[in-house]
């Protein structure tokens, strides 16, 4: 229960409703007790009439009528309060589920990129859905059934002992066996359910990947191989489901068997004791039969609840593991620090903490607001890493990276990220309308702003060419757009933000040279007072920049303007000559 202590704050939050729930449960149980009592009374009256102890039939009839009315009233009230009981406990559990999901999601969002690399998306999703659902079972049904069981036990068993103590011992003797058996069965069911869920998760991942990569599957003509793999997984899933069904099928027969044993004991022992005169009223036997049946479900529930709590404990442990993970990147400054955009790298070296790869070595440069710095170099030379460090996705030593002459850590993180428009290498678009994908950069942007950003990113004409224009809904990950269109929507999203710092990570690679030129011209106008960094493999994208640096294995091997670099021997000149040749061909 150590891990579940985390939920106590939610119990406190909803204490009013929970206390009301407990009160209602007690009332519902008391009314439940009236039913067997009145059935017992009625049977006793009839028996007394048959024995000649009551001579007038009308007296019996009147007594039966009163009993029936009381029975009906008690049953109705008990049903009403049982309904109210579920309305309190189950509703509270849904509130807690909602709160916990939001808490976990908010926490996930704060965590650093390294966390997402170490943990698989499926696992993150499972903890927020599956695990939270299991925890809800503890907050809702487990708590509700525990309280019902305790109340029913205290009230019913005390009354049974008061009525016929010896018979009570016999009647409740099989109940602990039932409880233990159900517990064992529940553990087995849970174990098999977990396996079934693992198979389901494998099946879902496989299906999702197959459909996401359907173009590759078709292009390679491997549909039949994919089918076979799917069938194998489905077969495994079927076998495990059948295993589960076998143990689940035992649940009710086992319960019925043990209820049957209790019933036989009540009839046999109760009958013998009535014949011997040790029980005064014949109705007591009938009354006890109803009690035994009433107690069976709560007793079975003890076993069920125990396994529910165990599962919730395991799930909460997994949730706590992530909730206790501190984000590596923390906002250390609470006051606002507006950003002008002077970026200084001073002998910066950086090693990725998770892989130990040194991506940058001794990198120094300065970019002032109004300037454009272009970064060029082979793949893996560290270009994207420079942009990631400016967005403070990773931390470096204080004096190595300064913005506006302050160590990046001494800037308010929200201000910093707000002032950056970042266009990543892989344009990621949401399954939403084109308008909302662009507006993602500025939530409250009006239509004119969306259109202007799209025009500057040279994608407006493409968008109005679609039959639904800006209302076109994209497929998953922007599947219905071409690579170049996706890149340009992603650029429009950064431009609409009107940020002080613009970071473009090789985001013109899928755009033809004419459109590239158009975008660069627009950028030239927009970024007059902004700091711009452009990463590219193409000379055409970088030639107009104020400064160009050439990276190789994390080191700056050349720097200067386009004219300077084409006139000195080295990587840049060679690349220029090669790309010029390609263009001419
Ligand atoms: N998130 C990461 N975690 C660990 N290592 C990384 C990470 N990102 C990049 N690296 C490593 O750091 C080095 C520099 O990568 P980076 O992405 O900065 O290169 P790049 O010049 O942008 O390459 P490309 O032109 O292919 O995009 C590479 O060796 C890469 O394997």
Automatic annotation (TrEMBL):
The alphabetized UniProt keywords are: ATP-binding, Membrane, Nucleotide-binding, Transmembrane, Transmembrane helix
Q: Which residues form the ABC transporter domain?
A: 343-578
Q: Where are the transmembrane segments?
A: 18-35, 64-84, 142-161, 167-185, 250-269, 289-309
Query: What's a Gene Ontology MF term here?
Result: ATP binding
Q: Please state where this protein is localized.
A: Cell membrane
What is the membrane topology noted in the UniProt record heading this document? Answer: Multi-pass membrane protein
SMART domains, A to Z: AAA
ABC transmembrane type-1 domain location is 19-311
Q: Entry's InterPro entries?
A: AAA+_ATPase, ABC1_TM_dom, ABC1_TM_sf, ABC_transporter-like_ATP-bd, ABC_transporter-like_CS, P-loop_NTPase, Type_1_exporter
PANTHER family cross-referenced by the UniProt entry? ATP-BINDING CASSETTE SUB-FAMILY B MEMBER 10, MITOCHONDRIAL (PTHR43394:SF1), ATP-DEPENDENT PERMEASE MDL1, MITOCHONDRIAL (PTHR43394)
UniProt-recorded name of the protein? ABC transporter ATP-binding protein
Source organism of the structure: Aequorivita marisscotiae
């Amino acid at each position: 229960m150590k891990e579940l202590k985390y939920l106590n704050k939610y119990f406190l939050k909803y204490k009013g409703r929970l206390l009301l729930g407990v009160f209602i449960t007690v009332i519902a149980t008391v009314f439940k007790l009236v039913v067997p009592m009145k059935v017992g009374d009625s049977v006793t009256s009839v028996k007394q009439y048959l024995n000649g102890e009551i001579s007038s039939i009308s007296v019996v009839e009147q007594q039966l009528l009163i009993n029936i009315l009381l029975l009906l009233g008690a049953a109705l009230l008990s049903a009403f309060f049982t309904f109210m009981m579920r309305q309190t406990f189950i509703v509270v559990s849904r509130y807690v589920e909602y709160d916990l999901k939001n808490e976990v999601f908010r926490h996930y969002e704060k965590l650093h990129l390294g966390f997402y690399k170490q943990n698989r998306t499926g696992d993150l999703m499972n903890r927020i859905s599956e695990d939270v659902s299991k925890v809800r079972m503890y907050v809702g049904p487990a708590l509700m059934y525990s309280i019902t069981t305790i109340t029913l036990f205290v009230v019913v068993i005390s009354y049974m002992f008061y009525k016929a103590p010896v018979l009570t011992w016999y009647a409740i003797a099989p109940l602990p066996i039932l409880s233990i058996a159900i517990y064992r069965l529940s553990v087995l069911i849970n174990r098999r359910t977990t396996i079934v869920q693992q198979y389901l998760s494998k099946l879902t991942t496989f299906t999702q990947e197959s459909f996401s990569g359907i173009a590759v599957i078709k292009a390679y003509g491997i549909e039949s191989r994919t089918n076979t793999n799917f069938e194998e997984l489905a077969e495994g899933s079927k076998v495990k489901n059948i295993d589960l069904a076998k143990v689940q099928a035992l649940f009710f027969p086992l319960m019925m068997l043990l209820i049957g044993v209790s019933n036989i004991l009540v009839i046999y022992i109760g009958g013998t004791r009535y014949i011997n005169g040790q029980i005064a009223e014949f109705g007591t036997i009938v009354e006890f039969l109803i009690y035994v049946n009433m107690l069976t479900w709560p007793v079975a529930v003890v076993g069920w609840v125990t396994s529910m709590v165990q599962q919730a404990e395991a799930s909460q442990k997994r949730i706590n593991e992530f909730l206790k993970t501190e984000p590596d990147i923390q906002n250390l400054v609470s006051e606002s620090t507006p950003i002008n955009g002077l970026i200084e790298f001073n002998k910066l070296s950086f090693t990725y903490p998770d892989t130990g790869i040194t991506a940058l070595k001794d990198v120094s440069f300065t970019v002032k607001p109004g300037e454009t710095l272009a970064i060029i170099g082979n793949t893996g030379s560290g270009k994207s890493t420079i942009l990631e460090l400016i967005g403070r996705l990773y931390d470096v030593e204080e004096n190595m990276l300064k913005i506006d002459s302050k160590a990046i850590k001494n800037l308010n993180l929200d201000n910093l990220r707000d002032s950056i428009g970042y266009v990543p290498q892989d344009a990621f678009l949401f399954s939403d309308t084109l308008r909302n994908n662009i507006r993602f950069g500025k939530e409250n942007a009006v239509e004119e702003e969306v259109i202007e950003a799209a025009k500057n990113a040279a994608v407006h004409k493409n968008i109005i060419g679609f039959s639904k224009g800006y209302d076109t809904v994209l497929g998953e990950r922007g599947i219905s757009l071409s690579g170049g269109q996706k890149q340009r929507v992603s650029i429009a999203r950064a431009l609409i933000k009107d940020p002080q710092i613009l970071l473009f990570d090789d985001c013109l690679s899928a755009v033809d040279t004419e459109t590239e030129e158009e975008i660069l011209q627009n950028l030239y106008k927009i970024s007059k007072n902004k700091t711009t960094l452009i990463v590219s493999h193409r000379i055409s994208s970088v030639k107009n920049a104020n400064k160009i640096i050439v990276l190789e294995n994390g080191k700056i091997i050349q720097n200067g303007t386009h004219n300077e670099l084409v006139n000195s021997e080295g990587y840049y000149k060679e690349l220029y000559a090669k790309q010029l040749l390609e263009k001419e061909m």
